[in-house]
Amino acid sequence: MSRTLFRTRIKFCGMTRAGDVRLASELGADAVGFIFAEGSPRCIHAREARLLRNALAPLVDAVAVFRDNAADDVREVVKQVRPSLLQFHGDEDDAFCRGFGVPYVKAIGMGNALVGDAVALQVRYPGAAAFLFDSHGDGIDGGSGQAFDWSRLPPGLVKPVILAGGLGIGNVFDAVVRTLPWGVDVSSGVEASPGHKDGDRMREFVEEVRRADCHVEPDIEAGTAGAATANGIKK
Ligand SMILES: O=C(O)c1ccccc1NCC(=O)[C@H](O)[C@H](O)COP(=O)(O)O
After folding, report:
1. 214 is annotated as an active-site residue
2. Please, which contacts does 121-125 make with residues 24 or more away whose CB atoms are closer than 8 Å?
3. For ligand 1, is residue 188 a contact (CB within 6 Å)?
């Protein structure tokens, strides 16, 4: 697809306030994330997420984020919140992730030394709708605000790639131009404090992603270097 016609998808994660959800919708975000991972400062109850979901505009996805939650917890969230996507950050296998009748995204922790190549990931998670690469692993948690080395993204993935981990106003332009992901996911980088988003940062983040979408590297346009992206989609 021509880069000029491509729009990098944006997910704002770790929502805890209806006003932030509403603003995300108005800014043109594609999705917001609700965290159900125990121990996260952004963790909310299914009942709260259900109310937050009602603040979401039509055509914006609600994503429910888990880390090794019990199947009953996931079922309860699916029932109450009706997310359009599930996102799994723990050691869940494909059978578990597929077991709820909702498409899922598998988060891959780039903090781990051994991530596996594209083939290994796709064989391990054949049901995944997309892979989200984040910085967690080796003592680092999801939503850490830490970036990883983007050159470690496994090339040749057929499924869409969502880039996460330490993105913010200062680096998301470079991140998009260098890795050409299907989408970007941010939490800490647009926050005033954990779970409380900063409206100005959210707006600037969207502007930076859109600026990157309009920025066509000559070598990418000519199809010489970097045209085949981490997610295998030529833009
Ligand atoms: O955000 C959390 O607190 C969290 C805790 C446990 C598992 C996942 C979590 N976040 C989910 C995410 O989608 C990403 O990790 C996040 O958007 C990227 O975080 P950040 O580096 O803060 O931008």
Report:
1. no
2. 121/154, 121/157, 122/157, 122/158, 122/159, 124/93, 124/94, 125/94, 125/97
3. yes
